[in-house]
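User: Hey, my collaborator sent me this sequence without any context and asked if I could get a structure. I don't really work with proteins. Can you help?
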Amino acid sequence: MNPSLRILLTLEYEGTRYAGWQRQLNGPSVQEEVEKALEKTLERHVTLTGASRTDAGVHALGQRAHFDTGSRIPPAKWPFVLNTLLPRDISAVAAREVPETLHARFSALGKRYSYRILNRPQPSAILRDFSAFVPLPLDDERMARALPALLGRHDFAAFAAAGHSAKTTVRTIQKAEFTREGKELRLVIEGDAFLYNMVRIIAGTLIAIGLGRLDEDAFQRGIDTGDRLALGPTAPACGLTLEKVWYPGE
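Assistant: No problem. I've predicted the 3D structure and written it out in structure-token form, which is a compact way to encode the shape of the chain:
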């Protein structure tokens, strides 16, 4: 048998019909679909470890996941193999060999998420599964003034959904900005790690600030007090995309 190699995959998926990344009992998951494709290829059970446990309805352009194999398939060929077996809403876009010490989740240095908002009076038939719909006008200037409070290293306890299992709620945010193109807004957040529902809570709070329902200092008050009630609602999952996960040397 060949020595075992650790393969790191980059995966893209539309999360609409999945119950999230992680294998679970209440519906199909992305992890389950990729593991099934691996098992068909290798004719044995394979455990796939993902960088981010995205929720039901959340999308990904750059999810990362590793598995170990003694197969003779060259690392770069794995996307071609898997994409013949995966459903159309999941695609393996890259693969490479990595040291066995690299762990898709625990070795990640940072992640980038984007959140898409459609801001117009009527909903979209095309974008309904890829953006949050906000029919009322948003104040871009208020939103832009609010975002810098997120930057830096803070205790983001107020930004975690109930039931999270994180050992610490301290996180570092390196980037928080949004752009508008016509009726579409795109929020981009980069950080070393994120709490459960953290980006969706940030997006929901930003929308509430743009609507004038929260003050511009809502993010700062959430950080200072640790009070979830200082922030806005959790924005819908459909607007969220995991864009990138990076590791040492990348």
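In plain terms: The CA atoms of residues 111 and 245 lie 4 Å apart. You can pass these tokens on to your collaborator as they are.
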